[in-house]
Design a protein that fits this description.
The chain is α+β, with helices and mostly antiparallel strands. 32% of the residues lie in helices and 18% in strands. The chain has one domain (3-145): HIT-like (HIT family, subunit A, 2-Layer Sandwich). α2 packs antiparallel against α3 (126-145).
Length: 146
């Protein structure tokens, strides 16, 4: 492992719950009190940009991202889903999937911005989490088999 990867928080075992993983990437639940079902798709290899991947790997990453988005939509029916791949602080390919609701703490602004309202923290109850994991596995399996 190179020096950069040694200090990369995505190159070490994740402290977050892993909802799905193969030898290419993993999907973790960030367990954000304000954003239940906020997930992140993390490439396992320490690679900085999507264009550093070969086209089939890019497609594989996006198939996983879209499958996770589909599962979140089916289980939670959010107003919108925000997809973000920034990597300014962590130059390692990863995608944020943030379900948004009109009554969430920051809507319609970015969830990283200043809050526009005070809301009680939301919870992803165990039955919805189980359903999310089941749908995520099914959608990812289907997407990667195409």
């Amino acid at each position: 492992m190179n020096l950069v990867a040694e200090h990369c928080p995505l190159c070490i075992p994740t402290p977050h719950e892993i909802l799905w993983q193969d030898d290419f990437c993993r999907v973790v639940l960030l367990n954000d009190a304000d954003y239940p079902a906020y997930c992140r798709v993390e490439l396992l290899a320490h690679i900085k940009e999507m264009t550093d991947l070969q086209p089939p790997q890019r497609a594989q990453m996006m198939k996983v991202v879209f499958a996770v988005e589909t599962a979140i939509r089916e289980v939670l029916n959010p107003t919108k889903i925000n997809l973000a791949s920034l990597g300014n602080k962590t130059p390692h390919i990863h995608w944020h999937l943030v379900p948004r609701f009109e009554n969430d703490k920051h809507f319609p602004n970015s969830h990283w911005g200043e809050a526009v309202r005070v809301v009680s923290p939301a919870q992803l109850d165990e039955s919805k989490k189980k359903l999310l994991i089941e749908k995520m596995h099914a959608h990812i399996t289907c997407a990667l088999s195409l």
